[in-house]
Amino acid sequence: MNYKNISFDLYRYQLLPITQDIQPDMYRSILSIDELKKQKNILFSEVLSNFPKLVHNASTLHQKTVLNEGDWFAFKLGVQRSIERENVHFNKERMDNWPHVTVILNNASDCQFIAISKNTKAFASSRVIANMLEKTLKEYLKKMQLSMHINELFDEQEFWELVKLYRGKITTVKFELISPNMANISKCLKVDLKQINLDTNSHRTCLELNAADEAVLEIQNDNEIIDGIVEYAAEGGGDISIKVNGLKRSIHTQKTNKKIEIDEFTVENLNVESLETLLGFLKP
Hints:
By secondary structure, the chain is of the alpha+beta class. The protein folds into 2 domains: 5-153 and 257-282, no CATH class; 156-256, no CATH class. 29% of the residues lie in helices and 32% in strands. Strands 1, 2, 3, 6, 7, 8 and 13 form a 7-stranded antiparallel sheet that branches.
């Protein structure tokens, strides 16, 4: 039997304390911000083990957990659609159809990635699923005094190729960065976002570079500060947008997230061993 490949978009999520002033709750005694940061993945695992029903507008959804072992969690999410067919009496009739996507998470503190399969018959884009996860899990994580931020993974070289392509025309570069809680993806940063978060409780920090009127930016890849920010964003730490003379809309790096293809048989028979082999490279 021939199995087709299924394309997955890749994302990184970060779990941050909602506030720097942690209050013990009725379920557990978290006495400090440092303890909460240490336990964040254990707390998130509790949410995944009792995975809530996702909601998407007025659509009827059906979900099924297919893997929950160690740091790995996966589920299928289907949405009710209808298809038209001709029956034996040569009449047209409409039938329910449940196209679905597969979502795979790794909750290890040095991974925290999500792979979402693409199926436009079910959802317009994988970003729809990422937004759904953020929105649904928000209230559950809030009880644990945590927030969740999901960002696309992209190839940092893409940014430098855009800089090269539009050199002499770039007027603005905006970096929207999530405060880091993963040391292995933030080691490249020369801007201390972690300290900014501690001092101000900022979860999203924006750095915007703007050229003077009638002038353009001079962006070079040998600039350690810029290069570090780009590398961090590419690992799922944020979004970069570029404004170019002559283009009405800004160009976002998030529009072209990293992908991986997994054969249909593996997707339908998910196990830890196969996922470690296929997705182990996502550990920074």
